[in-house]
Write a structure and sequence with these properties.
0% of the residues lie in helices and 49% in strands. With 294 residues, the chain is mainly beta. The chain starts with 5 loop residues before the first strand and ends in a 7-residue tail after the last strand. The strands form eight sheets. The protein has a four-stranded antiparallel sheet with strand order 5-6-7-8, with no helix packed on it.
Length: 294
């Protein structure tokens, strides 16, 4: 949650958020939430995730993984076990289990209740950079600098399938599907890669690519607005929206600045939350995909 004011330009009118309110002007400020939590890792945070209930959060600075209480920010426990920098964290839908990926090429599954790590998944040959959850969490997905995406069966600790887009490192992935579904067969994996390829694959078929789009720059972020609309962000600040029914040309391509887009989140199929980061500056934008009004 943001505890500072942030510039947002050309917002469409009437946007109300759970933790803040955005007025309609050409230059609007994001009003800080009433409730905020402060957690202080030893170094700069690399990855953070919050449970669906908001009760717990997890953050890593590369060295340690801190599990903290959402309302207070008090650290409940520190998870240690990776032998190299931790790159990504993600909670299971149950809010009781945490998934981590690291430069030691391993994916670990932790109990946030007692801090134990009953499962370690191995198979990648370079650092694990991004994680995803399929359905209720029977399967998990990992992307790596080795250029592969692996789908894992948590119960057997086996790799169900390996997807190789052949486009360099996997910078980010997003699982498209009903998180509450018991069956995982209908889920799709969206990935953004080092060589600018945005691709959509079936979780159970390693060679089944159902959509692909080649961008001119490295893609650093991706998400799905709805069943048919995909969004990707580039290392040079491009925001691309695409229709899966037509891969020949994007719906739109907007460039806010030259800063890499590191995260894209959707809200109720209406708006995108973009976080762009660089050494010099961070900024946040709320976007209406249908009209690309900023």
């Amino acid at each position: 949650e943001y505890d500072y004011l942030e510039s947002v330009e050309n917002l469409s009118s009437g946007i109300n958020a759970e933790y803040g309110h955005l007025e309609s002007t050409t230059s609007t400020r994001f009003i800080a939430p009433v409730l905020s939590s402060k957690v202080t890792p030893k170094n700069n945070p690399i990855s953070v995730d919050i449970t669906s209930s908001g009760g717990l959060g997890a953050v890593t600075d590369g060295k340690d993984v801190l599990v903290f209480e959402g309302p207070s920010g008090n650290v409940r426990r520190t998870l240690s076990g990776h032998v190299a920098d931790v790159e990504c964290v993600s909670f299971f839908p149950s809010n009781k289990v945490l998934l981590t990926g690291a430069c030691d090429m391993c994916v670990k599954i932790w109990s946030v209740e007692d801090g134990s790590c009953p499962v370690t998944l191995t198979g990648h040959t370079r650092a694990v950079t991004t994680l995803g959850m399929v359905g209720v969490g029977r399967h998990v997905v990992s992307g790596s600098l080795d250029g592969t995406i692996k789908v894992w069966v948590c119960g057997t600790q086996q790799c169900l399938s390996t997807i190789s887009p052949q486009a360099g490192a996997i910078n980010q992935l997003h699982v498209i599907g009903d998180q509450q579904a018991v069956s995982d067969s209908s889920a799709l994996i969206l990935s953004a890669t080092e060589r600018g390829l945005l691709s959509l694959h079936n979780t159970s078929q390693s060679s089944s690519c159902v959509f692909s789009y080649q961008h001119s720059e490295e893609l650093t972020a991706c998400n799905a607005v709805n069943q048919n609309t995909l969004v990707a962000g580039s290392i040079k600040g491009d925001l691309i929206t695409l229709d899966v029914r037509n891969s020949s040309q994007p719906i739109s391509c907007y460039k806010r600045s030259n800063y890499a887009i590191s995260s894209i989140a959707t809200d109720c199929n209406r708006y995108l939350l973009l976080i762009a980061q660089s050494i010099v500056r961070n900024f946040m934008l709320i976007v209406e995909p249908s009209s690309m009004i900023f």
